[in-house]
Amino acid sequence: MSKSSPKVGFVSLGCPKALVDSERILTQLRSEGYEVSPSYDDADLVVVNTCGFIDSAVQESLDAIGEALAENGKVIVTGCLGKREDQIREVHPSVLKVTGPHAYEEVMGAVHEYLPPKHDPFMDLVPPQGVRLTPRHYAYVKISEGCNHRCTFCIIPSMRGDLASRPIGSVMAEAENLAKAGVKELLIISQDTSAYGVDLKYKLDFWGGRPLKTRMKEMCEALGELGVWVRLHYVYPYPHVDEIIPLMAEGKILPYLDIPFQHGSPSVLARMKRPAHAENTLARIKKWREICPELTIRSTFIVGFPGETEAEFQELLDWLREADLDRVGCFTYSPVEGAKANELADPVPPEIQQERYERFMTLAAEISAARLQKKIGLEMDVIVDDVDLEEGVAIARSKADAPEIDGNVFIDRADLGSIKPGDILRVRITDADEYDLYAE
Ligand code: SF4
User: Fold this and answer.
1) DSSP string, 96-131
2) Is the CB of 147 under 6 A from ligand 1?
3) Are 405 and 329 in contact (CB under 8 A)?
4) Atom of ligand 1 nearest to the CA of 192
5) Does the pLDDT of residue 413 top 90, yes or no?
6) Has residue 3 got a pLDDT over 60?
7) What is the mean pLDDT of residues 93-119?
8) Which of 130, 131, 188, 290 has the least C-beta neighbours within 10 A?
9) Which atom of ligand 1 is nearest to the CA of 154?
10) Which of 103, 244, 117, 223 is nearest to 171 (CA)?
11) CB atoms within 10 A of CB 327
12) Does residue 1 have a pLDDT over 60?
């Protein structure tokens, strides 16, 4: 980069979907000759990509904008909180521009206005896979924006709009570029991966001259041809997901499903207006495990949703015991401004929410520990995330572990010098605790 390149600082908050938005904006910035500055001092202006999912995320975003204003002074705001411009301007009236989520062109327009580009096509080379914020060996691929559901606790559809799927040709071109650039694991994300293509009526598109339908099964089959790990996030237990399980059993994509069940009581799920809440999910999980015994299911849950009775909470615990899920996260319900659930009767007092959270997590930890114990003695492939030469340990993940949210496999080995992040190693599991495995 030339010394005179305009420099943009970037703060990226929020979920993997927001991270992908950040990557796209950064890719565009780099392709137009902007330099990305790691410090406020050095930057000519700062873009803050915000999150507005829950109140604590709103506060974190407002704080980040405040810090960028104090340290740099020229700030453009984008992302989910950008939908609430009044709220931002009330606290930080001097921000230059506020745009909403996935508003790449608007963000770039604002950057051009306040910091015109100096483009040098011979200098400003952007790698074909774009600029990534994840380590080199894994990458998120966002297949759609928005959501057609209207869960009562969620305001994402009001911020990101209805489902808008990317045509399968575009998804596959990105995935193929990433695989060619050395990425070993693709994490497929969206708000509802099982709904992929519904909005496009499963439109026919082309990848490498080959016709493919814009649909979940066809996408999984095509991704399975790339020779890298493919992990599915945000899937709902609809009947057509049954078609994906054989691909997992055959090793085409990872035997892993991230399904945000959120609850196990039908009455609570109905009040939440959850997708597929009328499905018999326990029967479905049982059938999936018959077809693919190594299937890992990770999920998240909300306890203390308005009106949740002790009996409904018990139903959730019974459901969890029966479902025997591998990986589970849990939140106590917290009202989000603008969510329909705020109008529901009988909010659960915070001390009962906390007590239920602890009971839920105790059971989840027991289940996770028991499932991990069964892996002792097994041989399996793991992907290395990090090598800690000082501690003499390599930190890896098995096919059952997504980065950031699941557990690790710690490998004790004398010849760590020959191992690097992204390597896939065959190991033997020697020990397990509640969430992690140990291997040689
Ligand atoms: S499925 Fe429900 S929780 Fe998820 S984004 Fe859509 S409305 Fe929100």
Assistant:
1) SEE--TT-HHHHHHHHHHHS-----TTT----TT--
2) yes
3) yes
4) 1
5) no
6) no
7) 84
8) 290
9) 8
10) 223
11) 22
12) no
Give the percent of the chain with pLDDT over 90.
69
Q: DSSP character for 288? A: H
Per the CB < 8 A criterion, the answer to whether 82 and 61 are in contact is no
Task: Give the model's pLDDT for residue 55.
Answer: 83
> Coil, strand, or helix at residue 203?
coil
From the alpha carbon of 236, which atom of ligand 1 is closest? 1
**3-class DSSP string for 388-403:** ECCCCEEEEEECCCCC
Ligand 1 contact via 157 beta carbon (within 6 Å): yes
Residues with Cβ < 8 Å from 156, sequence gap 6 or more? 53, 80, 146, 147, 191
pLDDT tens by residue, 342-353: 888 889 999 999
The rounded distance, in Å, linking the Cα atoms of 65 and 95 is 8
Bridge partner list, 398? 382
Backbone angles phi, psi at 212, to 5 degrees: -140, 145
Whole-number pLDDT of residue 10: 95
* CA 415 to mean position of chain CA atoms: 33
* Both structure tokens of 207: 């990848």
List all residues 6 or more positions away from 390 whose beta carbon is below 8 Å from its beta carbon.
Answer: none
Query: What does the chain come to in residues?
Result: 440
Residue whose token pair is 């997708």: 275
Tokens of 311: 């009996």
Ligand 1 atom nearest the C-alpha of 155 is 8
- Give the lowest-confidence range in 129-138, 191-200, 379-388, 403-412: 129-138
Whether 149 is in the pocket of ligand 1, judged by its Cβ within 6 Å, is yes
Instruction: Report CA 321 to chain centroid distance, whole Å.
Output: 26
Tokens of 353: 């929410």
pTM across the whole model:
0.78
Ligand 1 pocket residue status of 422, Cβ below 6 Å: no
Q: Which helix (H) or strand (E) holds 21?
A: helix 16-31
Place of tokens 């869960």: 151
Is 259 near ligand 1, meaning CB less than 6 Å away?
A: no
The answer to whether the CB of 243 falls within 8 A of the CB of 221 is no
Position 414 confidence tier, pLDDT thresholds 50, 70, 90: low
Q: Which helix (H) or strand (E) holds 161?
A: none
Instruction: Name the maximum alpha-carbon separation found in the chain.
Output: 67
230 or 335, which is more confident:
230
Structure-token match 């790691």, residue found: 38
